[in-house]
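Give me C-alpha coordinates for this 201-residue protein.
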Amino acid sequence: MTDTYKTIAFPSEEILFKEKNSKFFGYAFPVTTEEEIKNHLENLRKQHHGAVHFCYAFQMGTDKIQFRANDDGEPSNSAGAPIYGQIQSFGLTNILVVVVRFFGGVKLGVGGLISAYRTSAQMALEVSEIIEKTIDLHYIISFDYKNMNKVMRVIKEKNLEMVSQQMNESCQIEIATRKKNAEMVFDIFNSMFEIDIQLKE
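Here you go.
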Protein backbone atom coordinates (compact mmCIF):
# COMPACT_ATOMS: atom_id res chain seq x y z
CA MET A 1 0.00 0.00 0.00
CA THR A 2 1.44 3.37 -0.88
CA ASP A 3 0.94 6.09 1.68
CA THR A 4 2.99 8.84 0.10
CA TYR A 5 2.28 11.41 -2.59
CA LYS A 6 4.29 14.01 -4.46
CA THR A 7 3.59 17.72 -4.43
CA ILE A 8 5.66 20.91 -4.47
CA ALA A 9 7.19 22.51 -1.40
CA PHE A 10 6.26 26.11 -2.22
CA PRO A 11 5.14 28.28 -5.14
CA SER A 12 7.46 28.13 -8.15
CA GLU A 13 9.30 31.12 -9.49
CA GLU A 14 7.71 32.73 -12.53
CA ILE A 15 8.82 31.30 -15.87
CA LEU A 16 8.42 32.90 -19.28
CA PHE A 17 7.97 31.07 -22.58
CA LYS A 18 7.69 33.02 -25.85
CA GLU A 19 6.11 31.81 -29.08
CA LYS A 20 5.52 34.09 -32.11
CA ASN A 21 5.31 37.25 -29.98
CA SER A 22 2.88 35.67 -27.52
CA LYS A 23 4.17 35.51 -23.95
CA PHE A 24 3.27 32.66 -21.63
CA PHE A 25 3.99 33.10 -17.92
CA GLY A 26 3.91 29.84 -15.95
CA TYR A 27 3.31 29.35 -12.23
CA ALA A 28 2.87 26.36 -9.92
CA PHE A 29 1.36 26.56 -6.42
CA PRO A 30 0.84 23.96 -3.69
CA VAL A 31 -2.89 23.96 -2.81
CA THR A 32 -5.32 21.94 -0.69
CA THR A 33 -8.58 23.93 -1.05
CA GLU A 34 -10.66 25.54 -3.81
CA GLU A 35 -10.42 28.79 -1.81
CA GLU A 36 -6.62 28.85 -2.22
CA ILE A 37 -7.00 28.25 -5.97
CA LYS A 38 -9.41 31.18 -6.26
CA ASN A 39 -7.01 33.45 -4.36
CA HIS A 40 -4.01 32.54 -6.54
CA LEU A 41 -6.02 33.20 -9.72
CA GLU A 42 -7.28 36.54 -8.39
CA ASN A 43 -3.74 37.62 -7.48
CA LEU A 44 -2.44 36.71 -10.93
CA ARG A 45 -5.27 38.65 -12.59
CA LYS A 46 -4.29 41.73 -10.56
CA GLN A 47 -0.63 41.19 -11.41
CA HIS A 48 -1.13 40.79 -15.17
CA HIS A 49 -3.66 43.43 -16.27
CA GLY A 50 -3.15 43.16 -20.02
CA ALA A 51 -3.26 39.36 -20.19
CA VAL A 52 -5.97 37.74 -22.30
CA HIS A 53 -6.06 34.20 -20.91
CA PHE A 54 -5.47 32.71 -17.47
CA CYS A 55 -5.50 28.99 -18.21
CA TYR A 56 -4.99 26.51 -15.43
CA ALA A 57 -5.33 22.98 -14.13
CA PHE A 58 -5.30 21.61 -10.62
CA GLN A 59 -5.36 18.28 -8.85
CA MET A 60 -6.06 17.73 -5.17
CA GLY A 61 -6.44 14.72 -2.93
CA THR A 62 -4.93 11.26 -2.65
CA ASP A 63 -7.77 8.72 -2.30
CA LYS A 64 -10.50 10.86 -3.79
CA ILE A 65 -8.93 12.84 -6.60
CA GLN A 66 -10.41 16.20 -7.48
CA PHE A 67 -9.18 17.92 -10.64
CA ARG A 68 -10.13 20.52 -13.21
CA ALA A 69 -8.65 21.90 -16.42
CA ASN A 70 -9.76 25.34 -17.62
CA ASP A 71 -9.10 26.77 -21.10
CA ASP A 72 -10.26 30.30 -20.14
CA GLY A 73 -11.40 31.26 -23.63
CA GLU A 74 -8.76 29.38 -25.63
CA PRO A 75 -10.04 26.72 -28.08
CA SER A 76 -11.42 23.66 -26.28
CA ASN A 77 -8.71 21.40 -24.78
CA SER A 78 -5.86 23.53 -26.16
CA ALA A 79 -4.72 24.92 -22.77
CA GLY A 80 -6.16 23.33 -19.61
CA ALA A 81 -5.74 19.75 -20.82
CA PRO A 82 -2.03 20.06 -21.76
CA ILE A 83 -1.37 21.81 -18.43
CA TYR A 84 -3.15 18.98 -16.58
CA GLY A 85 -1.19 16.46 -18.63
CA GLN A 86 2.03 17.86 -17.15
CA ILE A 87 0.70 17.60 -13.58
CA GLN A 88 0.02 13.92 -14.33
CA SER A 89 3.32 13.26 -16.04
CA PHE A 90 5.16 14.68 -13.00
CA GLY A 91 2.90 12.54 -10.78
CA LEU A 92 1.80 15.43 -8.55
CA THR A 93 -1.26 16.24 -6.47
CA ASN A 94 -2.37 19.14 -4.25
CA ILE A 95 -1.11 21.46 -6.95
CA LEU A 96 -2.32 24.27 -9.19
CA VAL A 97 -0.52 25.23 -12.41
CA VAL A 98 -1.48 28.50 -14.11
CA VAL A 99 -0.26 29.78 -17.47
CA VAL A 100 -0.97 33.45 -18.21
CA ARG A 101 -0.95 34.41 -21.90
CA PHE A 102 -0.32 37.79 -23.45
CA PHE A 103 -1.42 37.63 -27.09
CA GLY A 104 1.29 38.80 -29.49
CA GLY A 105 -0.83 39.38 -32.58
CA VAL A 106 -0.01 36.11 -34.35
CA LYS A 107 -2.41 33.16 -34.05
CA LEU A 108 -0.67 29.95 -33.03
CA GLY A 109 -3.38 27.49 -34.09
CA VAL A 110 -4.60 24.70 -31.82
CA GLY A 111 -1.43 22.62 -32.21
CA GLY A 112 0.76 25.63 -31.42
CA LEU A 113 -1.33 26.47 -28.35
CA ILE A 114 -1.20 22.92 -27.01
CA SER A 115 2.56 22.89 -27.39
CA ALA A 116 3.00 26.35 -25.81
CA TYR A 117 0.78 25.61 -22.78
CA ARG A 118 2.36 22.19 -22.29
CA THR A 119 5.89 23.64 -22.43
CA SER A 120 5.04 26.52 -20.06
CA ALA A 121 3.50 24.12 -17.51
CA GLN A 122 6.50 21.78 -17.81
CA MET A 123 8.93 24.67 -17.25
CA ALA A 124 7.00 25.85 -14.17
CA LEU A 125 7.13 22.34 -12.70
CA GLU A 126 10.80 21.87 -13.55
CA VAL A 127 11.76 24.92 -11.47
CA SER A 128 9.56 23.78 -8.56
CA GLU A 129 10.92 21.85 -5.60
CA ILE A 130 9.10 18.51 -5.68
CA ILE A 131 8.73 16.76 -2.32
CA GLU A 132 7.26 13.51 -1.12
CA LYS A 133 4.73 13.67 1.71
CA THR A 134 3.08 10.91 3.71
CA ILE A 135 -0.66 10.37 3.69
CA ASP A 136 -1.60 10.68 7.34
CA LEU A 137 -4.72 9.67 9.22
CA HIS A 138 -5.81 11.64 12.28
CA TYR A 139 -7.29 10.08 15.40
CA ILE A 140 -8.87 11.62 18.47
CA ILE A 141 -7.91 9.80 21.68
CA SER A 142 -10.10 10.49 24.74
CA PHE A 143 -9.19 9.33 28.25
CA ASP A 144 -9.16 10.30 31.92
CA TYR A 145 -6.16 12.14 33.26
CA LYS A 146 -5.07 9.13 35.34
CA ASN A 147 -4.37 7.20 32.11
CA MET A 148 -2.14 9.94 30.71
CA ASN A 149 1.13 8.01 31.14
CA LYS A 150 -0.17 4.95 29.29
CA VAL A 151 -1.24 7.09 26.34
CA MET A 152 1.93 9.17 26.23
CA ARG A 153 4.10 6.06 26.33
CA VAL A 154 2.48 4.69 23.14
CA ILE A 155 2.72 8.08 21.43
CA LYS A 156 6.42 8.19 22.24
CA GLU A 157 7.17 4.55 21.38
CA LYS A 158 5.35 4.72 18.06
CA ASN A 159 6.72 8.17 17.25
CA LEU A 160 3.24 9.62 16.66
CA GLU A 161 2.71 13.27 15.89
CA MET A 162 0.57 15.16 18.41
CA VAL A 163 -1.57 17.65 16.48
CA SER A 164 -3.45 19.14 19.43
CA GLN A 165 -4.18 18.34 23.04
CA GLN A 166 -6.65 19.31 25.75
CA MET A 167 -5.59 18.32 29.23
CA ASN A 168 -8.24 18.53 31.95
CA GLU A 169 -9.94 15.92 34.13
CA SER A 170 -10.81 14.27 30.86
CA CYS A 171 -8.18 14.60 28.14
CA GLN A 172 -8.26 14.61 24.39
CA ILE A 173 -5.27 14.29 22.10
CA GLU A 174 -5.36 14.45 18.34
CA ILE A 175 -2.62 12.34 16.77
CA ALA A 176 -1.49 11.85 13.19
CA THR A 177 0.05 8.67 11.85
CA ARG A 178 1.07 7.38 8.44
CA LYS A 179 -1.72 5.53 6.69
CA LYS A 180 0.19 2.24 6.61
CA ASN A 181 0.60 2.30 10.44
CA ALA A 182 -2.93 3.52 11.15
CA GLU A 183 -4.56 0.15 11.77
CA MET A 184 -1.83 -0.93 14.17
CA VAL A 185 -2.03 2.37 16.09
CA PHE A 186 -5.82 2.13 16.28
CA ASP A 187 -5.65 -1.45 17.56
CA ILE A 188 -3.16 -0.56 20.31
CA PHE A 189 -5.29 2.26 21.72
CA ASN A 190 -8.54 0.39 21.10
CA SER A 191 -7.35 -2.55 23.21
CA MET A 192 -6.38 -0.31 26.13
CA PHE A 193 -8.70 -0.12 29.11
CA GLU A 194 -10.65 3.18 29.60
CA ILE A 195 -9.27 4.74 26.43
CA ASP A 196 -11.39 5.73 23.44
CA ILE A 197 -10.02 6.28 19.95
CA GLN A 198 -11.99 7.68 16.99
CA LEU A 199 -10.94 8.44 13.44
CA LYS A 200 -11.15 12.19 12.82
CA GLU A 201 -13.32 12.86 9.76
